[in-house]
Specification:
mainly alpha; binds zinc ion
Length: 468
């Protein structure tokens, strides 16, 4: 009986190898789905007395070739289905572990290895993580490797990609191991109110995780360095000083090692907080675009988005643990005996915990997306006001459209988008431009007319015109 999991594992591995070899044999990966770098501001988006934000937005969107839109839509909409498949696949794995009593058997093995409860928990975690990683591998390799290559978004060959997966497994083994040891310790000692204390431990663990990530976790996969090109850094630091941000450095990261996607982020908090631009953005973004993106990141920083997000996660974690408390009691009453799980403090309960949490996570996807998207919208507004680069911002939105659908419906955006859509971001930038043009028009009745097709530079923004 005990050899069954290993037979399954072997079958899985064979299956994976077949998929891998077959896919490799059939298709050479296509080129990247590069969105155009709009060097020229379209005529409709040039400053004028009849500037119309909608017309300017449409003119920007019209610069994207139809085939790029089709490909980007297909990539992003495929992601909707992947949310469903990931969910169902995860549920199937959890049910497999419970119903075939593999989870109970891994618990039994951990008890034979040692008498120490925390070590038993860790040994269970080791078995659980390795087994679920192998079972989840076929979908994972499709999603993160083959599919990313298919859309020209991945830059790694299989070997380095696999190495990153192993590093990820190592991080999960250590960090996940610490968390489960702590949580099962809490449940065993505080069996009445375990869910309240458990939520507390989880939130503290998450805060420490965010704090150490830029220093200890990110460098496992990539190499962040201090950005020292004065052409890029000087305007950014000037913008930081103007906004009271005590930043001395801006970081860059070699994301092109894994992906063609452009991005930037704020990571860490308190003493480890830093703003990082990825090298794809630095290589392909115009100076105006980079300033617009930096203004956005500074918005996250100045508006304390990380702290607010931690508060949001705190509330959601307490709710999740309350739900777990009820959900575990109910499911164990019905099937606990069948699955050979002795109670909430038994490590064999872990697949059931993951099953219940993934149901909650699936149902609340729009809640999390909306909470994050609301912050992203705030950062967009802050970034426009700070950088005064509406055209740079529009260009950034187009570049981000390489992996995010540009023009979704409102319901689609509400459910699936964790950032505002490209269409809405360009419109926000053009609305900003329209309103600021009006503002300057009242001070200066003869608005400077820029010739059509001038470059998307600071010269287009009234703020810069005013400076001259
Ligand atoms: Zn952001």
């Amino acid at each position: 009986m005990r050899s069954r999991p290993f037979v399954a594992v072997l079958c899985c591995l064979t299956f994976v190898c077949i998929i891998f070899l077959a896919t490799f044999a059939v298709a050479q990966p296509p080129g990247p789905n590069e969105m155009p770098s709009v060097v020229q501001v379209p005529p409709e988006a040039q400053p004028s007395t009849h500037f119309d934000a909608t017309a300017a937005t449409n003119a920007y969107l019209a610069q994207i070739p139809a085939d790029k839109i089709v490909r980007s839509d297909a990539y992003f909409e495929g992601g909707y289905w992947l949310i469903l498949w990931d969910f169902l696949y995860g549920i199937a794995i959890a049910l497999l572990l419970l119903n075939l009593r593999w989870s109970a058997r891994m618990r039994d093995l951990s008890e034979r290895v040692t008498r120490l409860k925390p070590v038993q928990t860790f040994v269970y975690w080791l078995q659980y993580l390795v087994l679920t990683t192998i079972l989840a591998f076929p979908l994972g390799v499709y999603e993160d490797y083959f599919r990313e290559h298919k859309y020209g978004l991945a830059t790694q060959t299989f070997g380095p990609w696999m190495l990153d997966q192993l590093k990820n497994l190592g991080v999960n083994l250590v960090l996940g191991g610490i968390l489960v040891v702590l949580l099962f310790g809490v449940v065993r000692r505080l069996s009445r109110n375990w869910w309240i204390w458990g939520a507390g431990v989880t939130v503290v663990f998450m805060i420490v995780g965010i704090l150490i990530a830029p220093i200890y976790i990110i460098p496992i996969f990539n190499t962040p360095t201090i950005l020292n090109d004065p052409k890029v850094v000087d305007p950014i630091l000037s913008m930081a000083r103007a906004n009271g941000i005590p930043a001395k450095n801006v970081y860059q990261i070699d994301a092109s090692k894994q992906t063609t996607k452009m991005s930037a982020n704020v990571s860490g908090f308190a003493s480890t907080m830093r703003i990082t631009l990825n090298d794809n953005l630095l290589r392909r973004g115009s100076p105006e675009e980079i300033q617009a993106v930096m203004g956005h990141e500074m918005g996250h920083y100045v508006m304390n988005h990380i702290y607010k997000l931690i508060m949001f996660f705190l509330i959601m974690t307490v709710l999740a643990f309350a739900y777990l408390n009820l959900g575990l009691a109910w499911t164990l009453r019905h099937w606990g005996e069948k699955w050979q799980i002795r109670g909430v403090g038994d490590t064999a309960v872990l697949p059931l915990v993951i099953l219940l949490l993934s149901i909650a996570g699936f149902v609340t996807t729009p809640v999390f997306n909306t909470a994050i998207r609301a912050q992203e919208h705030e950062a967009d507004m802050y970034g426009l006001n700070t950088s005064r680069q509406p055209d740079g911002f529009a260009q950034a939105a187009i570049h981000l459209g390489e992996y995010r659908k540009m023009s979704p419906g409102p319901f689609e955006e509400f459910v699936f988008f964790d950032h505002p859509s490209g269409h809405n971001r360009i419109f926000a930038a053009m609305r900003w431009k329209a309103e600021n043009l009006k503002l300057f028009a009242t001070n200066e009745p003869s608005l400077p007319q820029t010739s059509e097709g001038s470059p998307a530079s600071t010269a287009d923004t009234p703020a810069a015109v005013d400076k001259k």
